[in-house]
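Before anything else, study the sequence and fold tokens given here and see whether the fold suits the sequence. Record follows:
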Amino acid sequence: MSLRPVKHSVTLKGHRTSISLEPEFWAALQEIARVRNIPINALTAEIDAERGMERGLASAIRVYVLNWYRDQ
């Protein structure tokens, strides 16, 4: 896989936003959404709602993915 972040668009609160993540994080986020049986936009919205304003969305997603796999 590429080492460069890949940009994807998601919808949060009715607005499209772009998020840049490494392909491995996108794959993990998609897997988590599949296991939880929710759309990736819904999972991203949950992560966005729970993050503090001091943390960017891409960082919050990386931490969420890390914690998800740690808890497995």
The beta strands are 6-12, 15-21.
